[in-house]
Amino acid sequence: VEGLAEDNTTFSILMVCVYIPCQGVARRNALDRLCNFLHRERDRGRFSEIVVMGDWNGVPGQSHRHLHARQVATNEEFLGFTRATRFARAPARRGRCIDYFVSLNNAIVEKQRVLRDVDLSDHYPVVASLAVKHITAAPDKLIYDRLKLQLIGKTAVEILSDRRWLTCRSDDVSERAKQLRLLVEEI
User: Which UniProt keywords apply (predicted)?
Assistant: First the structure.
């Protein structure tokens, strides 16, 4: 999701929807994959904020312990969210808070609300409001003209798969454009 802040700074938020299995090896593997993904995306620095939401199949404290053990730092405001999000026909399975939002960088999940009047599954939908304390500008994106790349066919694959694209980084847009032109001509 991309947005425009009050000071006309663009920012981008990566929204990740998860399903974490209930227990055992499948749960640990899913959390490990999620944490690896979150570390990779944070290191790339492409997003101002990362928000993870969905069916955690565990209460907020349990999920926080797992994320913390895997060195994923989160804003801890979600720990206070305890409303029941699970609806089941069997009374023993009702009432657990297993669906919630977790933010990683500088956003605070200000409000989470459970929509109890919506019956779509055995979980109630959860709506959240985010408040961002400090907005980091979204990085510039490389944009490829797909029509031109289709015209040059096989060469396009070589151009896009070249690892040197990763080295074309500069705060000066004209300098970056010059580096990219030189790289394309060289390839």
Answer: Endonuclease, Exonuclease, Hydrolase, Nuclease
Backbone angles phi, psi at 43, to 5 degrees: -65, -35
Q: Which two tokens stand for residue 4?
A: 């425009």
| pTM reported for the whole predicted model | 0.61
Residue 97's domain spans which residues?
Answer: 2-132
DSSP-derived secondary structure for 104-155: -SSEEEEEEEE-TT--SSSB--EEEEEEESSPPPPPP-----HHHHHHHTHH
CATH code for position 77: 3.60.10.10
Rg value, the chain, Cα: 21
- Residues 152, 126 within the same domain: no
pLDDT digits (tens, 9 = 90+) for 128-179: 777 766 666 555 554 555 555 555 555 656 666 665 555 555 555 566 667 6
* Cβ–Cβ under 8 Å, residues 128 and 78: no
Query: Given this model, what pLDDT does residue 44 score?
Result: 83
84 with 163, same domain: the answer is: no
Residue ranges in the chain modelled with pLDDT below 70: 77-98, 105-110, 116, 118-124, 132-177, 179-180, 183-184, 186-187
